Amino acid sequence: MSNFVYVLNGPNLNLLGKRQPEIYGHETLADVERDCGALGDELGLRVRFLQSNWEGQIIDWIHEAREEASGIVINPGAFTHTSVAILDALNAFEGTVIEVHISNVHRRESFRHHSYISLRADGIIVGCGTLGYQLGLRRIAAMAP
Ligand code: DQA
């Protein structure tokens, strides 16, 4: 079993720390990447941390992960609520999938309450801030045989 984990981020998450900090906090995506890398070292996971504003790019990375990774931590951003295509790609991935949302989507607009990704996710972490990514990595490490 590979110790490779993909951490995938969807649209607008490149603006983390700058956009709506009252909702998403002040940490940047670079901070989150650094913390995930450090935790990966501690847990014996190799972390590939990626972000794209393009749905097709995220799908291509999920296909890549099929060949290489035992787990995916994914915050698909707004694609969570719209993308059957990302759901289909994740359904073709055999490892563990953890869905992360920085904010508590259930306390927000009703269009954020439905997630296509949750139909595939093995675990869902919502409203724990950027710590959610680390919780996702810990879950994947705990599930490794
Ligand atoms: C988000 C929640 C989504 O509804 C939103 O579109 C995002 C970020 C979160 O991390 O809380 O871009 O996934």
TrEMBL record:
GO molecular function: 3-dehydroquinate dehydratase activity
Annotated pathway: Metabolic intermediate biosynthesis; chorismate biosynthesis; chorismate from D-erythrose 4-phosphate and phosphoenolpyruvate: step 3/7
This enzyme's EC code(s): 4.2.1.10
Annotated site location: Transition state stabilizer: 19
Residues forming the catalytic site: 24 (proton acceptor), 101 (proton donor)
CDD domains from the UniProt entry: DHQase_II
EC top class named in words: lyase
Keywords, in A-Z order: Amino-acid biosynthesis, Aromatic amino acid biosynthesis, Lyase
Residues that, per the record, bind substrate: 75, 81, 88, 102-103, 112
GO biological process: amino acid biosynthetic process; aromatic amino acid family biosynthetic process; chorismate biosynthetic process; quinate catabolic process
Catalysed reaction equations from the record: 3-dehydroquinate = 3-dehydroshikimate + H2O
Function comment: Catalyzes a trans-dehydration via an enolate intermediate.
Family listed: Belongs to the type-II 3-dehydroquinase family.
Subunit structure: Homododecamer.
Name recorded for this polypeptide: 3-dehydroquinate dehydratase
Organism the protein comes from: Amaricoccus solimangrovi
Gene that encodes the chain: aroQ
